[in-house]
Amino acid sequence: MAALKNNIAIKWFNGSIGQSVIISDPDSNEKAWARIEFLIPYGDVINRPSVRVSPQKGNKTYQQIIAWHKTMWDDERFCKFPPSYVEVNKMYETSNPEIKK
Predict the structure, then answer these.
(1) Helix and strand numbers, DSSP H then E, in the chain
(2) How much is the average pLDDT of 38-55?
(3) Considering only CA atoms, which of 62, 77, 58, 81 is closest in space to residue 21?
């Protein structure tokens, strides 16, 4: 919900997620990086292996991640914008009646 409050664009993925991908500052060639974190069933979050690449270190892989992300982001069969923050907040309050307004 913090992303929605701060107007950060997010979309919900329609499918199973086999690994997480974080992309940071893709419009900045100097600060940009991407991390793929491999999910291991029943594994501790702290022990998940990950790979971090950037335009400076692992550029070919970095560019593939950016291209994949753009393709998925633009295809509504896979990624859709979530409800607005107000709608999400209403769903949360409705499903948690103990929350005091």
Answers:
(1) 3, 5
(2) 88
(3) 62
Phi, psi of 23 (to 5 degrees): -120, 125
Residue 25 domain flag: yes
Name the residue type at position 27.
Answer: D
User: What tens digit of pLDDT does each residue of 60-84 get?
Assistant: 999 999 999 888 888 888 777 766 6
Q: Which domain holds residue 60?
A: 2-95
pTM of the full structure = 0.64
Q: How many domains does the chain have?
A: 1
Look at residue 88 and tell me whether its pLDDT is greater than 90: no
Residue 45, CB half-sphere, CA atoms under 13 Å: how many?
1
